[in-house]
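Inputs:
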Amino acid sequence: MKRTVPLMLALVGGVIMIIQYFIPHQVSQDVFDYYTSWAPVVSGFALILGVGSITRLHYHKLRAREKNWPFSIAVLVPIYLMPIFAFFVPASLGGGSEFPGFFDFMYTRVQVPIQATMFSMLAFYIASAAFRAFRAKSLLATVLLLAAVIVMLGQVPVGDLLGRWLPDTGQWILRYPNLAAKRAIELGVGFGMLATCLKIIFGVERGWLGGAGR
Amino acid sequence: MTFYETAGVWVAALFTLAIYSFLYRENPLYRLAEHLVVGVSLGYSIVLTWQRILYPRLVQPLAAGQEWLLIIPATLGLLYITRFFPKVAWLSRYPIGFLLGTGMGVSFPLDMQALVLRQIHSTVIPVFTPGTPWDVALGTAVIVLGTLAALIYFFFSKPHKGPFFGLGSRVGIWLIMIGFGATFGFTVMGRISLLIGRVQFLLADWLRVIH
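Outputs:
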């Protein structure tokens, strides 16, 4: 019951879904339709698990007055306040310049700017990583450096000023050698994905069972 | 500008600066913004999951007395919660097994199509046809031979020696390095664009020193 049933669920579900792809019949279409309506519902419940886990973690931090405990309030308050506003004050969902609701405000004025800034900050780290990675120590490192410099200069106006060949070469590198390398990697990833699919369906890979209830 | 708009710009600007303050060193303002974004994202996900998935696909059909079979995925989903109770935590493997198995079954033929067959199909192409510009013909030759060479480089079951495997893997690593360099350059430009966007927001929307 603890291990065999979940493994059987994965095996039967996986085999049925593979077979239905190869049999274009109304029955297999119905099976696929059931899957597409059931799977999001099942995965939707996983959010309860996530919210419960993070609540428990921060609740313990608050109760024990652990180091940096006040920040736990900043996590817990919006988790519960946003759904409360969304469900009980539906007007808060709408945007608009006159009376933007709390939910809309938290999303557009807190979440979006913070996330955009976090991603933009990677520009600084990627630049410092470039200094370390791009030292032309060997011929291959020089090739990497040249390709990156040509592509970067090809994307900015100064590259166009230096010569039309620069953006053209940058585009050519992106379109052909880059594609060749990416395609080989993608084929490798594809074969890896196929092997992983089969390993999970046939129960060779069982890491997902975890240690629950052991 | 209304009061709400002004307040929104100020809040967004202060959180932008709070995140950038990490470039100097970690500080309480950064930690506050970091924790807040976790909470807000999760709160947003809860609302989105309810409004887009659970309510229209489960609650509404069940309340209308249709599709009683939906009780099966609902029960499976509820089994996730058993994870909080150690004695019955093993029951949470059921929804995971269902989702993993069916998910892998659905993605197997699709991955075969998208990641293998279509890639091979797009690689095995004529290098030169009359009227093709020289740079396109050269590029096509690079794609055909380059993909093969890069694959040879990743093929570790044979020693990289001899005219086929030796030369192939050497050409392959060159191609891979050009590809990595190009990808790196492209990523840097993407991040720089985001940085420019944030700086523009601070200077134009917040401080109004540029238009």
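Remarks. The mean pLDDT of chain B is 93. The helical segments of chain B are 3-20, 28-63, 71-78, 93-123, 134-154, 162-206.
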